Amino acid sequence: SAGYLLSGWYGAGAVTNALKTTVLMDSPRVAVAAFNRAIRNIQELQKIGNDPAYPLDEYYVLASNIDASVTATWNGGAGFKPLGTVDQPFTGTLEGQGRVIRNLTIVRTGEEAGPVGLIGFMTDGGSVENLTLDNCAILGSDDVGAVVGLNMRGSLYKCSATGVVKGRDSVGGLVGYNEWGDIEQCRSQCSVSGVR
Description:
It is a single chain. Helices cover 3% and strands 47% of the residues. With 196 residues, it is an all-beta fold. Strands 1, 2, 3, 4, 5, 6, 8, 11, 14 and 15 form a 10-stranded mixed beta sheet that branches. The protein has a 3-stranded parallel beta sheet with strand order 7-10-13, with no helix packed on it. A two-stranded parallel sheet has the order 9-12. The protein starts with a strand and ends with a strand.
């Protein structure tokens, strides 16, 4: 299906990571092909939570490396709009598959900005996995991080970031503020500055 990638086969003895499978059915059984929404460019990534066809609770897979340089000119210089807000948190999965998002720019300052990062606010069930942000420029106020601004019970696994992250309070190279979230095998080499 256009816009989706096969993630695997499930049931009836299917090989889960095969691109195709043959299932011999000797009794009523079901084999299911699971597909995840593919994200191929920065425009599709920005649709998450901003287009009804891209809800915040879906499973997304990066299908290629993404050059996000164009975000420096988006929204009057404010750049990429973080995925997920305090009112509508990200609760889905962003699976990077070891791919890279380069040159992402986010400039969201002021009290109304909310949490700032690729994912602004992530909560229960939300996860980011196997993703690298390279040469990001993230500027916010409070709860500012390269990958996630505010993480409450979400998870990050094998994520990394390089670039610059600036804010006022709760600023981090990977996550701005983490409350009961799981962070495993992640690293940041970002230059980070904040007031506290």
